[in-house]
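I need you to check the entry underneath: sequence plus fold tokens. Let me know what the token row says about the fold.

>
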Amino acid sequence: MTALEVVLFSKNNVPFFAVVKVPRLQIAPHVANLPRMKPMPDFKTEYVPCSEAERAGVELWIRRLDMIDSPAPGNKAWKLMYHVERANLQPKPALLTFGGAWSNHLHATAAIGASLGMRTIGVIRTTEAELARPTPTLQDCKNFGMELFPVSRSEYKEKDEPFFKAWLCNRFDNPWVVPEGGGGPLGVMGCKHLVENTDIEKPWDAVVVSAGTGATAAGILLGLKGTAPLYVANALKGFDMRQNIERQLNLALNDSEWSSEIAGGCNVWNDAHLGGFGQISKSTQSFIEKWKAETGILLDGVYTAKTLIRMQLAWRKSPAWKNRRVLFIHTGGLQGNRSWQ
């Protein structure tokens, strides 16, 4: 299957991104709103020797998105890249998005907005009283200039409903609305660029990444083009991550059959939440400390630490991992560690 990427423009100059798949001589267009891409920060991929990998006979490499030169280190820079492009098309460029008290996504949106001089609005699942005593994450957002707008939990559940988004757009002078976590077609297509040409030319035996919305995993699947299996560590308890990855793909490609085919290239670890989203046990904290002491690399407690714990369990349970060359995507999120440190 060959994918051809084309940018089209409607009468009002709104750009559309078309992904055209070509099986033999047939062409079927799949269109998702996607503005042009601008250069992104460089990331490095480094070999990381560690005792657990050596025991399992695994060659472990880590893509250090946590170390990029960006106001928002981690995968959020890629999830937001096209959202920022689209926001610039608004009559008054602005980003509105959603999150909780320790949201990496809110923090990244506020930071990127501040660096670009773009207005940002954060719709927060909290109360006025709680917002008066903001977490360090929300205080950072305020310092970056983000307008924080509290809503009740029941209102927050309506965040994806058209009527609620229309009400927010009317209230805040028509900003570009970014889904919670930065997903949707623009987030997925941004994360496709987390895969380099060298990943295709010299395929990995396995690629491993954490998942909350599934948008990053969906983008990586698109980028890998079936050259390597993707292992996804689900950070959410009782959530069908594979189904959501397929949904994210379909939002970007507008082709359910093709999305299902691509999603077939991922293996989801649904037990990687280790008690639930945001639940960071003493054992997880201890793992973070030991990993940092051994490798010099800091992990976050919500995503990357739990992913590495689950990956190492897989190594111990199956000899099939022996002699594999494995790429782990470090998605950042380190500011969230303040929730438990």
Summary: The first strand starts at residue 2 and ends at 9. DSSP finds 14 helices and 13 strands in the chain.
